[in-house]
Amino acid sequence: MYEIELKAHVRDKEALEEKLKKNAIYRGFREKKDTYWKLTKNGGFISCRIREENSETKEGKDSEIFFTYKRKEIRATENGATIELNDEKECSISGKEALEVFLQDTGFKIELYKTKKVSQWEYGEALLELCLVEPLGYFLEIEILSPVNDPETVENKKKQLLEILKTCGIPETEIENKYYRELILEQNISREK
């Protein structure tokens, strides 16, 4: 399954929450604690993620652990904003310890930790997540899943994403072109100086 998504900075959380309450269906709260692992290889790198996720929905509370590998691609819109097109491979695991030992033994190192506190909403076929990403602030992520990633499908989904963003009252200029990983690493480097 392909994720076609964008994320945008949220400058007025309360105003966005009001729009979401009017236009979307609330699906619950999740806290996602991510550990990013990185293996440097041939001048590039391979990365993966272990996510510990705690959720609270109307069905109750739950905890899960996921292992994720993504092939990521960024595509620009006509005005220079970007959407992500991710070929995501994910599975749930019963525990993280064996996988962490395997990653260490094969040369992976922990690159960073990330915590997202997420309110999830459903709008048509899209999943909207109002996220507090520590230490970066609030973002709105809008994601549509697709079994295919041909140019026509991606263009159609991209238009849907931008229309939803507009409905939420967020201008396209607030779309963030970098991955959270990059933003957190940049912030960590600037703190070290």
TrEMBL record:
Signal peptide from the UniProt entry: none
- What's one Pfam family here? CYTH
Q: Which spans of this chain does the record mark as coiled coil? A: none
Domain CYTH as annotated: residue spans: 1-186
Which InterPro entries does the UniProt record give? Adenylyl_cyclase_CyaB, CYTH-like_dom_sf, CYTH_domain
Query: PANTHER family of this UniProt entry?
Result: CYTH DOMAIN-CONTAINING PROTEIN, SI:CH211-156B7.4
Indicate what this protein is called per its UniProt record.
CYTH domain-containing protein
Which species is this record about? Candidatus Gallitreponema excrementavium
